[in-house]
Amino acid sequence: MVYENLILLIHVALAIGVVVFVLLQRGKGAEAGASFGGGASQTVFGSSGSGNFLTRTTAILVAGFFLTSMALAYVAKQRAEDMNNINVPVSEQAAPVESDVPASTDDGSSALPTE
Predict the structure, then answer these.
(1) Where would one find the signal peptide in this protein (predicted)?
(2) Residue 108 gets which letter from DSSP?
């Protein structure tokens, strides 16, 4: 149970990281604008730009997300197998109890004594 919660926490963190890093990346159309005088936009990550760093980081996060997905699937499978293997004892059936109320007769009249 503790491992499942830990894996789930890491899984959610990786999912958020993948979304953030995908949104940080520029599309192919943004590179064309940078080539016409927008060279100052690449100074933070050097002359090669941020593409290589963001691409590698996104790939690592996606690989971790995939691994945690597989781990959660394995944990769920184990839990389902454990639930199927639980031996629930069959409760003992109570012996039939004679009723104090007499049954009716075949002709529809009651078997109760009349006064």
Answers:
(1) none
(2) S
Residue 40: DSSP 8-state: G
- Whole-number Å distance between alpha carbons of 75 and 20: 27
49 vs 88: CA distance, rounded Å: 63
Of 75, 65, 72, 68, nearest to 16 by C-alpha is 65
Coil, strand or helix at 8: helix
- Rounded distance between C-alpha atoms, residue 109 and residue 115, angstroms: 14
What whole-number distance in Å separates Cα of residue 14 and Cα of residue 40? 31
Structure tokens at 8: 């789930």
Residue 13 pLDDT more than 70? yes
Its pTM stands at: 0.57
Q: What is the mean pLDDT of residues 81-106?
A: 67
The whole-chain average pLDDT of the chain stands at 77
